[in-house]
């Protein structure tokens, strides 16, 4: 295989962008393991009392990831996230105002391999979420497993990450004063294993829990989301976000994760591993730090996230299967319309359409 090396005269800003994404990839793939190892070593050392005190703190703080987490505006505003944003680059596009007195759920599709768009837009302030949607606080939902890892859990909660269990989501959307946005990767692990360049297939046909939640939490408006990360010729991926509110549910759109980190053609072993462990361990091919032929670094491909207009939904405390199916159909239709309306803006042609499975 011929290796394509990066030129020596790369501008400093681009090198800083690469470094920012490199630390993010490390955090995603290895930081949890390092934190766990550090805790074990601390417990076995002369500083075991520190590990004991932290274990006590962990016990007292156990429910925080399901009770809104512990966001840190300081950490979300680090300069490193601006370099992270500019690497792809990431953009967050607002098409409608959202009422800060309401709570929302953003459904996110596709899951992608490393969820770069979801992290950059909703776990940092690099794309201006708080400026575009004043009064709203974004929370990206993550598997409960990661909030059991010492030290790592505290770090990810600072970015606004919370547990993806039902009680956590209910806590966010039930806040009476409003202002919460819960970002949910509705497609889950199977969608992460199906991230491929040009992919327009969303795993949503049998994902209706968020619809039921919307119906049960008062007046809701569905907000479609479509992520389109493009290189001007091919779709880099299509992501759907749902915004469910105490009163509003709405659509958001973004993409590029599949183009940035294409999946390796080895889905069967990955599916077996996912079924055993309950978490996705996708095999992907990407670029390196000093060469472009192989590695773990995502490619520099734009990721655009478009937040659409709300769809009003009436409260149904005990929704029937017919109620859920009806809203689900409306949501998919609205999602399709949003995608069709914006795809030309980001370089897609008439041949690109969404497929739901």
Compact overview of the structure:
The chain is an alpha/beta fold and 357 residues long. It is 38% helix and 17% strand. The two termini are 36 Å apart.
Task: Give your account of this protein's structure.
The model is unreliable at 229-248 and 262-269 (pLDDT under 50). A hairpin with a 6-residue loop joins strand 8 and strand 9. Strands 1, 7, 8, 9, 10 and 11 form a six-stranded mixed β-sheet that branches. With 357 residues, the chain is α/β, with parallel strands linked by helices. The protein has helices at 12-44, 48-60, 73-76, 80-87, 116-122, 129-132, 152-158, 166-173, 188-192, 209-216, 257-260, 267-277, 321-342, and strands at 90-94, 104-107, 137-142, 162-163, 180-184, 201-202, 220-230, 235-243, 250-254, 303-307, 311-313, 355-356. It has one domain (12-356). It has 13 helices and twelve strands. Helices cover 38% and strands 17% of the residues. The radius of gyration is 20 Å and the shape is globular.
Tell me the distance between the termini: 36 Å
Largest sheet: 6 strands, mixed
Structural class: alpha/beta
In total, the number of strands is 12
Mean pLDDT: 80
The number of domains: 1
- The DSSP helix count reads 13
Rg calc? 20 Å
**What global shape is seen?**
globular
Low-pLDDT runs of 5+ residues are 229-248, 262-269
Oligomer: single chain
Give the topology, please.
Layout: H1 12-44, H2 48-60, H3 73-76, H4 80-87, E1 90-94, E2 104-107, H5 116-122, H6 129-132, E3 137-142, H7 152-158, E4 162-163, H8 166-173, E5 180-184, H9 188-192, E6 201-202, H10 209-216, E7 220-230, E8 235-243, E9 250-254, H11 257-260, H12 267-277, E10 303-307, E11 311-313, H13 321-342, E12 355-356
Parallel strand pairs: 1-10, 2-5, 3-4, 3-5, 6-12, 7-9
Antiparallel strand pairs: 7-8, 7-10, 7-11, 8-9, 9-10
């Amino acid at each position: 295989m011929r290796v394509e090396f990066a030129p020596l005269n790369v501008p400093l800003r681009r090198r800083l962008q690469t470094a920012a994404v490199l630390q993010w990839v490390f955090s995603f793939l290895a930081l949890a393991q390092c934190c766990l190892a550090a805790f074990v070593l601390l417990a076995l050392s002369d500083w075991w009392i520190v590990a004991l005190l932290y274990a006590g703190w962990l016990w007292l703080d156990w429910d925080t990831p399901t009770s809104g987490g512990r966001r840190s505006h300081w950490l979300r505003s680090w300069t490193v996230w601006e370099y992270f944003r500019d690497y792809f680059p990431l953009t967050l596009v607002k098409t409608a105002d959202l009422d800060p007195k309401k709570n929302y759920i953003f459904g996110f599709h596709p899951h992608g391999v490393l969820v770069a768009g979801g992290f950059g837009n909703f776990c940092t302030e690099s794309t201006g979420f708080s400026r575009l949607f004043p009064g709203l606080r974004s929370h990206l939902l993550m598997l409960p497993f990661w909030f059991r890892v010492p030290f790592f859990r505290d770090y990810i909660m600072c970015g606004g990450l919370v547990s993806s269990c039902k009680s956590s989501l209910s806590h966010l959307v039930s806040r009476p004063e409003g202002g919460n946005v819960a970002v949910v990767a509705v497609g889950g692990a199977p969608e992460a294993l199906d991230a491929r360049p040009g992919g327009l297939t969303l795993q949503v046909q049998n994902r209706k829990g968020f619809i039921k939640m919307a119906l049960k939490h008062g007046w809701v408006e569905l907000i479609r989301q479509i992520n389109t990360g493009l290189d001007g010729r091919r779709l880099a991926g299509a992501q759907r976000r749902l915004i469910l509110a105490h009163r509003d549910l709405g659509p958001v759109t973004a993409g590029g994760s599949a183009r940035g980190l294409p999946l390796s053609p080895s889905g069967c072993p990955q599916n077996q591993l996912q079924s055993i462990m309950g978490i996705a361990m996708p095999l992907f091919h990407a670029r390196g730090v000093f060469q472009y032929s192989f590695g773990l670094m995502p490619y520099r491909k734009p990721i655009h996230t478009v937040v659409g207009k709300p769809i009003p939904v009436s409260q149904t405390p005990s929704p029937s299967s017919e109620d859920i199916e009806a809203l689900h159909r409306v949501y998919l239709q609205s999602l399709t319309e949003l995608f069709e309306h914006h795809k030309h803006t980001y370089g897609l042609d008439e041949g690109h359409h969404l497929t739901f499975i």
